[in-house]
Design a protein that fits this description.
With about 675 residues, this protein is mainly β. The chain contains six helices and 42 strands. It is elongated and about 130 Å long.
Length: about 675
């Protein structure tokens, strides 16, 4: 139906609507008078409509229809210059050209949807209401043909038709109404002119009658005719191509292997040939076989069964040539190198041979996995058996799941963990970096330290780092020997640490100040021979034996400590004062030995803590302060009686300060 007919029908319907139902819809018993005060528009024109009908924009004022007049990029109707405004009810299908021939269709296919053969949908309908799809490619009028395949998408955006639906004789006609190629349902051009053609499919969305759809074409540019009168295919009984049987002249293009023309004399195709296959080269244009009916082609000997071969036909010759090809697509490798190999016979392409590249992991792109690091001997339970490698750049392997004590890692033996005395000795001084295998799921490296993957356990701080102050906000546990031998850190802050392992700060020769306000357990030898002078252990409950042995601690307050094991402060030549809180129940024997600077010991526990003797030999001058009401009990208690002459009540000023502390500052 043309535009004029549509207009007459539209006007008739509009008049009928105004007479029949317009009264009730537009004002009860009085005839509605349209008020054309709202703009509507498409890509090229605008018009006014009566907006009292809501979303119904059919009541328009035809006298206001006009082309856009853009001033400063905008039209009075609201349209913007260059704005793309697709028609709202365009056909939703997608279309592809699929076929074969001597022109561009050589790269197409009867069965495969190729992106460069997808038709482009235009944003606007034509004047008769058809959605337009276009494509342009070179076609030879003498025999090239194709179909238009159409697809709709489902609600997930996937194509509905897995096998495709084709426009053919019942669906496509030319502009004069003549159906296309009634014999094969294929589209071609009957102009006799070879060239680049623009094809346009005119459609109306389903369920419009298929007979409404048609295709038109126009010659965009003429091209020279093809340089050959041949159109060559491989036909026959081929295992890899089950549909490619001896042709009946109607299925050659659809099912058989089209050979590629080089523009001069040679046609060729790469195909898989299995022992026992039989085939011929076939010229579709003159229906001639090569070799003739008396013989067939097959896999040449020698050659791999199921191998890749190149079949070549040269115009004017009587027999094609068949050459075995190597398809270098799979990897071959040994322990040192990899290379590409033929996927049919494993022949190597030596030009691709090169050494493995493992990147940051253990697997090369070729698939070869390197053996576990031979320098790390890991037990089945993930613990370290022995490390025998170079210490310069330590790389923690993927299969280490339990971090070793410092001494074992550096070859000193677990019982010899205290030696050597400095970073310059043995293997410790060699460390320049520490990394973790990306496949290791237990450890990571941050801030010069090896941490648990969640960052709560500090296993090792690099012995010879250059940092002077460190803070670990999220660490809750310092593992055994973590800072041992560090010679640069002077201040360390651990606001959340609850447990300090044995030897944790052993022989840290620069460390003077440590903050551990939440630490409750301090293991043995934690600060052995360290330079630490002050340490915040205000929450500590248990102190292990020899925790500060031979350190430079000057004073310490242990308000919450309950138990102290062994000679914790032995050899601390600078220790001047110690304060124990009210919860103390036990003191290690010979707690103070060779503490020549010790002047005061304050014990706030009302009951004398058990001890054999906190001194190996009685001191000659010292003050031991205890609660006023407990002075006599201390003087009489075992382990304290030898100190009776030094025991006296805590000075009133000290007690008053304790009472005056705000509740938030008092210890539990």
């Amino acid at each position: 139906m043309n535009k004029k007919s549509w207009l007459i029908v539209g006007l008739s319907l509009a008049m009928a609507a105004s007479i029949g139902v317009g009264i009730s819809a537009c004002g009860g018993e009085k005839e509605h008078k349209h008020t054309y005060d709202a703009w509507d528009f498409n890509a090229t024109q605008h018009w006014k409509y009566c907006d009292e009908h809501g979303s119904d924009k059919n009541n328009i004022d035809e006298t206001t229809k006009a082309n856009h007049d853009f001033k400063d990029g905008k039209c009075v109707c609201g349209a913007t210059e260059g704005q793309e405004i697709p028609d709202a009810d365009l056909d939703t299908r997608e279309f592809w050209a699929t076929g074969a021939g001597a022109g561009d269709l050589q790269s197409s296919s009867w069965t495969e949807l190729k992106p460069n053969f997808k038709l482009t949908k235009q944003p606007h309908k034509d004047e008769d209401g058809f959605t337009l799809y276009t494509i342009q490619f070179k076609i030879y009028a003498g025999g090239d043909s194709f179909k238009i395949r159409q697809d709709e998408k489902d609600e997930n955006g996937a194509l509905k038709w897995t096998d495709g639906t084709y426009f053919g004789i019942d669906e496509l006609r030319n502009a004069s109404g003549t159906f296309i190629d009634a014999g094969t349902k294929n589209i071609g051009v009957a102009t006799g002119k070879d060239g680049i053609y623009k094809f346009t499919v005119h459609t109306k969305p389903s369920p419009a009658p298929w007979a409404d759809n048609f295709v038109t074409w126009e010659l965009v540019e003429s091209v020279a005719p093809p340089t050959t009168t041949e159109d060559m295919y491989i036909v026959g009984k081929l295992v890899a191509y089950p549909n490619c049987q001896w042709p009946d002249y109607t299925n050659v293009k659809t099912n058989c292997i089209h050979m590629t023309f080089d523009g001069d004399k040679t046609w060729s195709a790469q195909i898989k040939i299995t022992n026992g296959d039989q085939f011929k080269v076939y010229n579709l244009l003159n229906k001639q076989y090569f070799p003739d009916q008396g013989g067939n082609l097959g896999r040449p000997d020698p050659g791999p069964d199921g191998g890749l071969y190149e079949v070549t036909w040269v115009s004017g010759e009587l027999k094609p040539t068949i050459k075995h090809l190597h398809n270098y697509v799979k990897w071959g490798y040994d322990s040192e190198n990899h290379w590409k190999a033929c996927d049919f016979d494993s022949v190597a392409d030596d030009s691709t041979r090169e050494a493995h590249d493992f990147g940051d992991g253990d697997t090369c792109e070729c698939g070869y996995q390197k053996e576990a690091d031979p320098d790390w001997k890991i037990n089945d339970d993930g613990t370290l058996n022995e490390y025998t490698g170079d210490y310069t750049n330590l790389k923690i392997p993927a299969d280490l799941t339990v971090f070793p004590d410092f001494g074992k890692l550096f070859g000193m033996g677990e019982n010899n963990v205290y030696e050597p005395a400095s970073c310059e000795a043995k293997n410790v001084a060699k460390v320049q970096s520490v990394t973790v295998d990306p496949k290791n799921e237990h450890f990571k490296v941050e801030n010069n330290a090896v941490l648990s993957m969640d960052g709560t356990i500090l296993y090792m701080y690099f012995p010879c780092s250059t940092e002077t102050e460190v803070t670990f906000e999220n660490v809750t546990e310092i593992a055994n020997s973590a800072f041992i031998y560090n010679a640069t850190v002077t201040t360390a802050n651990f606001p959340k640490v609850e447990t300090v392992g044995k030897y944790a700060f052993n022989k840290t020769t620069a460390l003077e100040t440590v903050s551990l306000p939440l630490a409750e357990t301090i293991d043995k030898d934690a600060f052995y021979a360290s330079a630490v002078k002050t340490v915040d252990l205000s929450s500590a409950k248990t102190i292990g034996s020899e925790a500060f042995l031979n350190s430079k601690i000057q004073s310490i307050e242990l308000e919450n400590v309950e138990s102290i094991k062994g000679s914790v402060f032995s050899g601390c030549a600078q220790l001047a004062s110690v304060v124990f809180g009210e919860k103390l129940t036990e003191l290690g024997d010979y707690l103070f030995y060779n503490n020549t600077a010790l002047k005061t010991i304050t014990v706030k526990a009302t009951t004398p803590p058990t001890t054999k003797s906190i001194f190996l030999l009685p001191p000659t001058a010292i003050k031991v302060y205890v609660p006023t009401d407990s002075v006599d009990a201390y003087k009489a208690a075992a382990g304290w009686s030898k100190l009776a002459s030094f025991i006296e009540a805590i000075p009133a000023a000290t007690a008053a300060q304790e009472v005056a502390l705000p509740a938030s500052k008092k210890k539990d």
